[in-house]
Amino acid sequence: MAKNAVLLSITVDIDEISALLRTLDIDIVREVVQKRTFPHRAMYLGPGRIEEIIEDIADTRIDLVVVNGILKPSQHHALETQFGRECADRVGIILKIFAEHAHTDEAKRQVTLATLKYELPFLREWIHKAKSGERPGFLSGGAYATEVYYEHARSHIHRIEEELKRRTEQRELRRRRRRNAGFFLASLAGYTNAGKSAILNALCDTSVEVDGRLFSTLSTTTRKLEWSAKRVLITDTVGFIKDLPLELVNAFNATLEEVFLADMILLVVDVSEPMSIIERKLKASDAILTPRLQGQTVVVVGSKADRLSESKVEEVRIELESRAGPRRVVLTSAKTLSGLDQLVQAIDHTYGNTNLIRATLPQTDEAYSLISSLYDIADVQQNSLTNNIQIVVTCKEGDYARIHARIKAVGGIIEAANRRQCEDDAP
Ligand SMILES: Nc1nc2c(ncn2[C@@H]2O[C@H](COP(=O)(O)OP(=O)(O)OP(=O)(O)O)[C@@H](O)[C@H]2O)c(=O)[nH]1
Ligand SMILES: [Mg+2]
């Protein structure tokens, strides 16, 4: 039976939390929006409003109070005691979905880790309140037990972190083996529900779950790209969502590294949504992705283009290009397969560009002319600053030494270089 929830929000923007709740089969039976710049310190919404809601729902079956935002432990404690119901904020809801969708051992461990880390501050608050006598009778005689649980949770976190570290090492080893076998690794990244798994299924011989619910994919699938004669592996894994605390993102590190440490990233964004949402989701994905990349080529893949009218396609492409920065944009549909050949061409173009040089160049004519010539043989990202130009070049092994020398010849300083051999370039 579906659960009934009251939703508390300080913005009218409740589409995403509604989609998250639908995924969990939770019905919103009361939706309370109190527009505020900041949540109320004590109970998220003003105490008067909370009292009204409690009166208002007295005769309704409510299983859960959901907050469309992130709660502080004290607010969570106050709301649960006021409503006498379980209370969950946005992160709590996302974790419930993760728990339902985690099927593999690793995914389950990561969800447990994320949940324990999330719950710990709340638990601390309950202990604090019980000890300070603010909740006489609450946890009667149970404060000690809660404290024991708290300690147990901390050691459990430590244990899982150790296990996941081992998994991370195993994954690193597997990536190295794949590269040594001459495979080029591309990963599908992007907001949850963007259509990543559908693209994997269309490009490779897979039938991973494709579903309108959020976070259908939590574990990782890697398959050979069937559309290309080259040795390319594509990985599909967990999607992104905005405003996830960094600690929770980090709990999924072992899985997310498959995205971040690939040779090339296909950043998928659903172009059938309004441009304001496309922009927001692209920004949220970038916020998670960009700081963790090491200069790999990113292609922005617009998905679900079949949902656009023919006249809209060009308009959306231009808008997306203006938001994609220096990255190439390809519009695709996993349903009609349109644009997938261009996506494969983009992968083929980048194939083998696994050698990375990050450098700072002076702002001279020679440096600019070197950069424009590099575009013909490598993937180049450049950023002109006041006094110099920063570039990240990903190139083939055969061109590496030459590019390295030419950068130095125009007075460039090599900041970082990472040489990785791929089969096509092997002597
Ligand atoms: N019309 C249309 N719908 C699509 C296309 N690709 C995916 N969808 C739909 O979009 C929804 C999400 O697709 P998925 O491939 O599961 O998305 P995902 O990015 O893997 O999502 P998560 O794993 O949940 O993060 C599903 O309902 C798909 O049927 C497409 O090319 N055209
Ligand atoms: Mg998926």
Short description:
The protein has 427 residues and is an alpha/beta fold. The protein contains 14 helices and 14 strands. The protein has helices spanning 15-23, 47-56, 73-83, 90-101, 105-131, 143-180, 196-203, 246-251, 253-260, 275-289, 310-323, 340-350, 365-374, 397-409, and strands at residues 3-9, 26-33, 64-67, 86-89, 184-190, 221-224, 232-236, 264-270, 297-303, 328-331, 355-362, 379-384, 388-395, 413-418.
In the residues, how many domains can be counted? 4
Oligomer: single chain
Radius of gyration (Å): 25 Å
Strand content: 15-25%
Q: Structural class given helices, strands, pairing?
A: alpha/beta
Mean pLDDT: 90
Element order: H for helix, E for strand: EHEHEHEHHHEHEEHHEHEHEHEHEEHE
> What's the helix count?
14
Q: Please, what is the CATH homologous superfamily of the largest domain?
A: P-loop containing nucleotide triphosphate hydrolases
CATH fold naming of the largest domain:
Rossmann fold
End-to-end C-alpha gap: 63 Å
Number of strands: 14
Annotate the secondary structure layout:
Elements: E1 3-9, H1 15-23, E2 26-33, H2 47-56, E3 64-67, H3 73-83, E4 86-89, H4 90-101, H5 105-131, H6 143-180, E5 184-190, H7 196-203, E6 221-224, E7 232-236, H8 246-251, H9 253-260, E8 264-270, H10 275-289, E9 297-303, H11 310-323, E10 328-331, H12 340-350, E11 355-362, H13 365-374, E12 379-384, E13 388-395, H14 397-409, E14 413-418
Parallel strand pairs: 1-2, 1-3, 3-4, 5-7, 5-8, 8-9, 9-10
Antiparallel strand pairs: 6-7, 11-13, 11-14, 12-13
Helix pairs in contact: 1-4, 3-5, 4-5, 5-6, 6-9, 10-11
